[in-house]
Design a protein that fits this description.
The complex is a heterodimer of chains A (about 190) and B (about 475). With about 190 residues, chain A is an alpha+beta fold. Chain A folds into 2 domains: about 110 residues, no CATH class; about 70 residues, no CATH class. Helix content of chain A is about 45%, strand content about 15%. In chain A, strands 2-3-1-4 form a 4-stranded antiparallel beta sheet. The radius of gyration of chain A is 25 Å and the shape is elongated. Chain B is an all-alpha fold and about 475 residues long. Chain B has a single domain, classed as Up-down Bundle (Formate dehydrogenase/DMSO reductase fold), CATH 1.20.1630. In chain B, about 50% of the residues are buried. Classes of the chains: A alpha+beta (about 190), B mainly alpha (about 475). Chains A and B meet through α2, β2, α3, α4 and α5 of A and α2, α6, α8 and α16 of B.
Chain lengths: ~190, ~475
């Protein structure tokens, strides 16, 4: 089943290991493999796929992303910033009567408050996504795995990381991946 | 009673036997293409040697764009008098062009945001190009109000930045709302566009062979790794940005319409403006999407990914929004008649039969009559005809903004100060040059960035379903 050679699988001395990777041929196979890894209680592992697979978050047992909290917080900040900006400029620092409107109210600058809310919330979401995903990060052990290049095209890959308590030694992880039907099982060096 | 219950029992028996008809969903990608085919197709566009047609078009677009920048340089060095603006018409082609280009942008945001929330999967093959179109259209739009301020080197006074005069922008003015609306629109559209592109940039990065290519795409792809833990955050962020962009689609042109509606000029001071402007914006935007995508589809042979189903949907949206625009024209007339306001009545009769009647009837022909051809399947399937009708819609929507802006100003309350507006050659050069500027940006996009969102298209083909067998 697993066609790895011993040189490929054994870490050399003084070498740090990131984890063990293997490939799957189809979406259905990797989906079911993910469910079994989740059920085995693994925490430090990931599935690498060219596109987001519908239902994979549940198959992996991932919690809901917390980006919405960042968005909400950023949106509220935007609204308050808009209020402060319009109040400070048009009512506090340089009060001016225009069109018989009050110096400041929530009504007349509403388009500005609205746009500030959306602008800040969008920035929060955008940067939140990159920060939560720990990006940008241009060096990563996976980039040295030859098969990894195909993941952004049409390959499906599972990586079990060495930091997981279930990992033990690489051989145990190989056997586990082999039992799931994984192919091209390789060691990922750190 | 007994008879009825017997009948209902019989009906139930029949119903139990009847299986609901399987309504096959139209395929989004034809000919059962694989994941790898999609990668090859889209990356192939970026990776192939620069085609001759691109070089020719790019040179032509640069030359055309030079007219805009030449016109603007002449304007800045001489003064706004070189435009055809004179009392009583203070808003001429510049504002017409601004509204025209901002409107074009709306289809991109509609496709990327509203259709995403509505789970319209057909959006996937056109959303990237449509979003790019949005951003470049807003770039063109932004030039006009910026230079319309006259002394462009004071353009930063539009933003709340402390200046030596110690004064601030005045937030009761719809023009100031517009500064915030358009700049937010541009920024959020760009963030959304870029974030959606990151996984596709990673695909191009992974395929890159030369050093500079690798460096360029690695920088843009931010080290994206396609891990599901990343996808989980990415999809949530994408959905949220779609949710945030949805009110933007509706608000930007609403606020643009406030520039007119908040004033007291007859023909401008109407409550119908916001919805009518938004419908018109989506109408013109979809026409522009088709104007761009039909030739690209032919050049790059994208017939499997942009198929008749996509074209049908877009033409139907054009038909629907075009009919809404036609309905809005009729409503304006009705309200003017019903209001009992003689100035309002005059403004509309003058639009249709006054000195600008020629522009009004071009507008009606292009916007109300031409999309009606899309009722017919034969027309929707004739792509040359679709393209020509879309050109008519583009022209018609420009004339709509011309009619609204100019007719109301030319003949308002005091007949003694009426006037007639004609553009100068500088106006004409500056406007037509923006098509070159737009094309330069769009051609660069085609050449260097993924034209279709690969990851999204892959996720809607049948092989992507984990429960398919």
């Amino acid at each position: 089943m697993n066609d790895h050679s011993p040189q490929d699988t054994q870490p050399r001395r003084e070498e740090r290991v990131f984890g063990v990777a293997c490939s799957f041929r189809s979406v259905a196979e990797i989906f079911h493999a993910a469910e079994r890894i989740r059920d085995a209680g693994w925490k430090k592992w990931d599935v690498y796929t060219p596109f987001p697979i519908h239902g994979m978050d549940a198959a992996m047992g991932l919690p809901r992303s917390s980006i919405p909290r960042v968005t909400l917080l950023a949106g509220i900040t935007g609204f308050v910033t808009g209020c402060l900006l319009t109040w400070y400029t048009n009512s506090f620092d340089y009060p001016l009567i225009v069109g018989a409107k009050p110096y400041w109210s929530v009504i007349y600058p509403f388009p500005v408050l609205y746009e500030c809310t959306i602008l800040f919330a969008a920035f929060g979401t955008f940067f939140g996504q990159f920060i939560f995903n720990r990006l940008p990060r241009h060096h990563h052990p996976l980039f040295d795995v030859p098969q990894f290049i195909r993941v952004s095209d049409d390959a499906f890959m599972v990586v079990l990381e060495v930091t997981d308590p279930h990992f033990g030694n690489p051989d145990k992880a190989y056997d586990f991946l082999a039992s799931l039907g994984g192919q091209d099982i390789t060691l990922v060096r750190d | 009673m007994a008879h009825a219950s017997e009948e209902s029992t019989a009906n139930r028996e029949i119903l139990a036997k009847v299986r609901p008809a399987e309504l096959p969903r139209p395929s989004l990608v034809l000919n059962g293409r694989s994941f790898h085919w999609i990668t090859e197709k889209v990356c192939g566009i970026v990776e192939e040697p620069t085609p001759l047609w691109w070089k020719v078009m790019f040179t032509m677009a640069l030359c055309l764009a030079a007219f805009t920048f030449g016109g603007l340089a002449y304007l800045v060095s001489t003064g706004t008098g070189v435009w055809g603006l004179r009392s009583p018409i203070g808003w001429g082609w510049a504002i017409v062009n601004f509204v025209f280009w901002v409107g074009i942008g709306h289809a991109g945001t509609l496709i990327s945001a509203i259709l995403c929330l509505l789970r319209q999967k057909w959006r996937t093959s056109i959303n990237r190009a449509a979003e790019a179109m949005t951003i470049f259209a807003v770039c063109c739009a932004g030039l006009f109000p910026l230079f319309h301020v006259g002394r462009v080197w004071f353009g930063w006074w539009l933003f709340p930045i402390p200046n030596q005069n110690g004064i601030w922008p005045q937030f009761r003015s719809p023009l100031e709302w517009d500064v915030f609306a358009v700049s937010t629109y541009f920024t959020v559209s760009t963030l959304f566009w870029y974030m959606g592109m990151v996984p596709d940039l990673a695909t191009i990065r992974d395929r890159a062979r030369t050093w500079w290519r690798k460096a360029f795409y690695s920088f843009l792809a931010m080290g994206w790794r396609n891990g599901n833990r990343q996808w989980c955050n990415f999809e949530m962020a994408y959905l949220l940005l779609a949710g945030l962009s949805t009110p933007l689609v509706l608000s930007v042109h609403t606020i643009v319409s406030f520039d007119f509606a908040v004033s007291n000029v007859p023909g401008w001071h109407t409550t119908i403006f916001p919805p009518y402007f938004v419908a018109g914006a989506i109408f013109s935007g979809f026409a522009m999407v088709l104007t761009l995508m039909l030739p690209l589809r032919a050049i790059y042979r994208l017939h499997d990914t942009i198929n008749q189903y996509h074209i049908d949907n877009m033409t139907k949206i054009i038909l629907a929004t075009g009919s809404m625009v036609g309905y809005a024209y009729a409503t304006e007339f009705f309200i003017a008649a019903y209001s009992g306001n003689p100035f309002e009545k005059f403004a509309f009769i003058n639009r249709a039969f006054g000195q600008y009647a020629w522009a009004y009837w071009i507008m009606v022909t292009c916007n109300v009559i031409s999309p009606q051809f899309f009722w017919f399947k034969a027309v929707r399937e004739n792509h040359a005809l679709v393209w020509i009708i879309c050109l008519f819609v583009n022209v018609g929507m420009w004339f709509e903004r011309f009619v609204i802006t100019v007719t109301s100003l030319a003949n308002d309350y005091l007949p003694s100060s009426w006037g007639y507006y004609s553009p100068t050659i500088v106006d004409i050069f500056t406007f037509f040059g923006t098509f070159g500027f737009f094309s330069v940006l769009f051609l660069l996009f085609i050449r260097f960035l993924p034209l279709l969102p690969m990851a999204e298209i892959k996720s809607v083909i049948p092989q992507a379903d984990p429960h398919a067998h």
